From TrEMBL:
Signal peptide: none annotated. PANTHER family: NADH DEHYDROGENASE, NADH DEHYDROGENASE [UBIQUINONE] IRON-SULFUR PROTEIN 7, MITOCHONDRIAL. The keyword DNA-binding does not apply. It comes from the Eukaryota. It comes from Trichonephila clavata. One of its GO terms (biological process) is aerobic respiration. The keyword Transmembrane does not apply. One of its GO terms (cellular component) is respiratory chain complex I. Keywords: 4Fe-4S, Iron, Iron-sulfur, Metal-binding, NAD, Translocase, Transport. This is NADH-quinone oxidoreductase subunit B. GO terms for molecular function: 4 iron, 4 sulfur cluster binding; metal ion binding; NADH dehydrogenase (ubiquinone) activity; quinone binding.
Amino acid sequence: MTNQILSNDDWGRYKKEGFLVTKFGDLIDYVMNWARSGSLWPMTFGLACCAIEMMHTASSRYDLDRYGIMFRASPRQSDVMIVAGTLTNKMAAALRKVYDQMADPKYVISMGSCANGGGYYHYSYSVVRGCDRIIPVDVYVPGAHQPLRRCYMECYAYKTK
């Protein structure tokens, strides 16, 4: 079977060492990680034109819902935050607050050059030069005006990670 939770080697090891006593915690961790990898619930934090591109991934052409990627509006229901667009100084406090409200484990995808380093507005007095100065970022998606395929591929690669 290709979709079994434990491989034959794992099952033999658990059976030898006393499965219920010593390896129950490892099994629970393994099952929890397996369940989390099956569905990705990103919280959208769209700030500019990259957010419009990100919204298209939920439309009928790409339809990320069929792959288990369902956008959530509440930070308490999501496990991944996608930051897309130019982050200003006034919005930085709100970004940090929303990040702190997310449940653990939490991950951040920075999408586009504006979210990565300020983009076209890098030298403006009101722009934060990258959202990684406010919150820790796990995945960077480079470039401006991201094609939808790249956003989908990053979500899929992150899901299989």
